[in-house]
Amino acid sequence: MSNTQSVTAVAKYIRMSPHKIRRVLDQIRGRSYQEALMILEFLPYDAGGPIWQVIHSAAANAKHNSGLDKKKLIIDKVFADEGPKLKRIRPRAQGRAYKILKPTCHITVVMKAID
């Protein structure tokens, strides 16, 4: 039985819809660290930027805190949860106001080392 360590990184209050983030997360779930970075580099979605940062942070945590090699890391779990919504109003005719909800999300990446 092998003893696998896992490391976590979380990015909170990302100003993007969790639905759009999850579309990209589904592409990299279960991939190796280097393969995930390559996929994110060439995807045409803006969600790739914040996800790329979180994956880099998780790899840095693995190297600095646990002494793990970045080349042996795989993405074990990755998910995006809803954050609070920024509430804004849009003025409309005759004194009315329409509500605008700007979504935020929290991205969590859990990586583990393979032997």
Tell me about this structure.
The structure is a single chain. The protein has 115 residues and is an alpha+beta fold. It has a single domain, classed as Ribosomal Protein L22, Chain A. It is 35% helix and 35% strand. It has helices at residues 18-28, 33-42, 48-66, and strands at residues 6-14, 73-82, 86-91, 97-102, 105-113. The strands form two sheets. A three-stranded antiparallel β-sheet has the order 1-5-2. A two-stranded antiparallel ribbon has the order 3-4. Strand 3 (86-91) and strand 4 (97-102) form a beta hairpin. Helix 2 (33-42) packs antiparallel against helix 3. The longest helix is centred in the middle third of the chain and has 19 residues, at 48-66. It is elongated and about 65 Å long. The model has no long low-confidence stretch (mean pLDDT 94). This protein binds specifically to 23S rRNA. One of its GO terms (biological process) is translation. GO terms for molecular function: rRNA binding; structural constituent of ribosome. Keywords: Chloroplast, Plastid, Ribonucleoprotein, Ribosomal protein, RNA-binding, rRNA-binding. Belongs to the universal ribosomal protein uL22 family.
